């Protein structure tokens, strides 16, 4: 099965990144302004990208300041049952974040599009954590 993997170095301590990835405020600044987020294992968070595009992610793991894992339970059919994991390792005043989107069935046009968009997500996360301004879906022009 193909996987998407990205590494981003963010010049802030890991708790700032963890909060951006697990709170409504952080995720609305980084990913999309239209969301329903609860920070508890087993619950399902909802992310909307326009009127007909919703992604539902069940929270599988939350390890304070170091790991977040979601399982897609509703979205584009290619995303169903895929996993998104984000690992944060802090070294020398910097945080090394590894994002993996795993369990894809095949490499498709949509897979390639999502690969690109996960990179934009990490850019937005870095911008939000370092400068206080992210680039959520509603602000993108590309």
From TrEMBL:
Q: Residues in domain Activator of Hsp90 ATPase homologue 1/2-like C-terminal?
A: 13-129
Q: Which domain of life is it from?
A: Bacteria
Q: Name one Pfam family in it.
A: AHSA1
Which SUPFAM superfamilies does this entry report, sorted A to Z?
Answer: Bet v1-like
Question: Which InterPro entries would you find in this protein's record?
Answer: ASHA1/2-like_C, START-like_dom_sf
For this chain, the family text in UniProt reads: Belongs to the AHA1 family.
What name has this protein been given in UniProt?
SRPBCC domain-containing protein
